[in-house]
């Protein structure tokens, strides 16, 4: 066994050789001489003595070799020698090396960017110890209102106390509040979590400053007003002052004592929302701003997310079966609320996918495209390496002939491939960073800390490295194995012109054909996506966004009760209409395209819902009378809302065409009714049908939507839409003044022009995606171009002599041109046809990625095919033409002498 | 031929270190030739140390810190590398020697077992 000390000495010896060969040799020579002298003294002839001595001692050279091996770590020394050799070999052919590195950089960069995108939106684990053991538990909803797993507090307590699969279950709910860092400061919007008392201890998070919650701080409703600040809030509002402990802050007017600060990096479990504070669950009723519901007692109020840490040895399947039993028990014990609610267990990844299936589909799409680019890049480099193979094969044969074993030679070639891959990876990080910068243009328009974090971080680096090494294996191993398997004598005798195998070129033509096909698929997908999005942009969302200013209000944040809130909103919109230069004003609880649309459970009269389904969840907005006119959403049948629709008159609704057609097909929806909220909720009568618009995303499938009057269904949070005659930003100051006149304390959130908010919400993400996809398409084409060019040029090189003979015996130059061109274009066209066929399949698959399909008609975009086909033919023709012309210009006399 | 040599080296592997350390401990600093000659002499010519065995062993012992090598000058004025045992080497010698004695006793007892 080698001791650590010996290992270290030898490591240093490898990296910085200290004892020179000369010294070692001197030592050995002395030994031999002394033995020889000894022999002479005993009388052997002096000429023989040295020889005899050397023979007896086993030879200086062998000893020297053994000493050198002992001096260093042989594997490391060999590795370093291989690297030095590899660098020299690559530097000898700079054009090859450059093309290979750039190809790989494109492939690896695309994957680096795609991974960073996926990581930000889906993959990055929560910042807790052993995140893989933390799962989400919750009720599957019978109404389908929320795709997320949510639970009521009483249910949480039951599940927590009955289950045995977990090392603790924590519960939390999001809370948006008005936050005052100190008395007398104007309240600012903030977003945080109400959490169960065991939140920090079960998740294994220790506060950076101060302490987490004690058990007794989560026992009595409303008693313990303590708060743990998020790290970012602490830095921004308190300048990271450790003296913050014991200070008092206000949430919605209630005083809370600061007891701790969460560690840097922990921001809760959401992928985009970075929560700013944590308060005990028992303080929830104090800060909801909605006195009508008792979140700690109401079993029907499902707002909590539950996460559990699996016990060591417990499996997710075990937890699932245990919880399904508990769910059945709860269903029996509380039939009123437990009906049709199962309990599901999901991993973090499953949970995120369920939360946003479109994001998951998009990520899969980008990942597949990036993988295709990488394959094209690897095909390129593999092709280039193969064209060097005959030359390298001779070198390798020589090495093997003088005694190197095959694995040693293989290692030499693999080292070269890895060097290429690493250089490509390094440059690829630059390419990937470009992609990340592109992604970063995506911002969610809000004052709250809600943002996707696209990073070139350690995880991205590791993934890029792995991708680089995988690509090295992909492109390097096959040529390496072939180069070392060759029959030595055959290789040594062969000349390059004669070649020594037809199959080798066959493989290359196949690779290039495949590359063309892949680039065609990439390009058509890019064209589909780009043209599809473009058509959506041009078609528009179905409502106006120009010259409108938006500002948000939530009066409960400054302790308005329901009546005061209602009065405030009524006064707000009336006073706004008096502001000079303001053409019209309206209120709505939902800004189209904002995401997170409020859904209401309805039961359409006379419609048979599937068994087990009691209600359907319909996205809604509560609006005022001017809404349809101002946003230019036509009410095509019946009427919009009027001021006479009040809390005292029967509930009315305006639905969109989609909803009307879905539940009352072939009938007039006017006058039809549906129940709201539950099976014995109030009836709402449909008084109008509005034209369909886009509601959540420009690429959504037609969606059912219902509008209510805000006078009849009161809202805690609404936006004021103000239309100006000119630049809507000029309305900000007078509107602020007007709000100040109503109530100086009233906070205003998220002031933006509708245009800007719409653009950021609905347009930017698609611009980014189409650019990214287009970039991959172009890169794929560029790779195919290089691949085809290199292959045709290589063939011309190999056939120089043959072409010379053809010309010498009278072939016309145009015939030679045609011959070479034909060979190149055959492959390109076969690749094109294959690629177009594959694209047909891809376009079907794409339709699954984009709900409602990319084509408004649902058909295939043949214009895209035509465009791509023409581009690929033109580009490949160019790639083949340049070397073909060179072939046609060959001088026969030179060519015949060429070896 | 090569095989037999390798086998011989294997046999020596464990004991060579012990011999080198013991020789250096009793006779003080010396260079490789003296060391080899001494071992040969003690064994009545039965152990002829190959250079490819002796010098790597010396280097290994030096890398482990058991011996220390320094360039010096021989009696008739030739440059030679002198090896001396270090404190760690003496400890190692004591430990290996005890182990050798223990093993030798066991083997001896085993081979001379009667009925």
Share of residues in helices of chain B: 55-70%
N-end to C-end Cα span of chain B:
39 Å
- Strand arrangement, major sheet of chain A: 2-3-8-5-7-6
Oligomer status: heterodimer
Q: What's the order of the H and E elements of chain B?
A: HEHHEEH
What percentage of the residues of chain B does DSSP assign to strands (E)? 5-15%
What integer value in Å does the Rg of chain B equal?
Answer: 16 Å
Give the low-confidence spans of chain B.
1-11
Question: What fraction strand of chain A?
Answer: 5-15%
Please report the number of helical segments of chain A.
27
What's this, in brief?
Chain A is α+β, with helices and mostly antiparallel strands and 899 residues long.
What secondary-structure arrangement, pairings included, does this model have?
The complex is a heterodimer of chains A (899) and B (115).
Chain A: H1 4-15, H2 21-41, H3 46-57, H4 60-71, H5 74-92, H6 94-123, E1 134-139, H7 153-162, E2 166-180, E3 188-195, H8 199-203, E4 209-210, E5 226-229, H9 231-238, E6 248-251, E7 254-261, E8 277-280, H10 284-287, E9 305-310, H11 316-333, H12 335-338, E10 343-347, H13 348-355, H14 357-401, H15 406-439, H16 458-485, H17 488-493, H18 503-539, E11 548-553, H19 562-576, E12 582-588, E13 599-604, E14 616-623, H20 627-630, E15 635-638, E16 652-656, H21 657-663, E17 673-676, E18 683-690, E19 706-709, E20 718-724, H22 732-742, E21 749-753, H23 754-798, H24 800-808, H25 813-849, H26 862-888, H27 892-897
Helix pairs in contact in A: 2-3, 2-4, 5-15, 6-14, 6-15, 6-16, 6-23, 7-11, 13-14, 14-16, 14-18, 14-23, 15-16, 18-23, 18-25, 18-26, 19-22, 23-24, 23-25, 23-26, 25-26
Chain B: H1 2-27, E1 30-31, H2 32-42, H3 51-64, E2 67-73, E3 79-85, H4 87-111
Antiparallel strand pairs in B: 1-3, 2-3
Helix pairs in contact in B: 1-3, 1-4
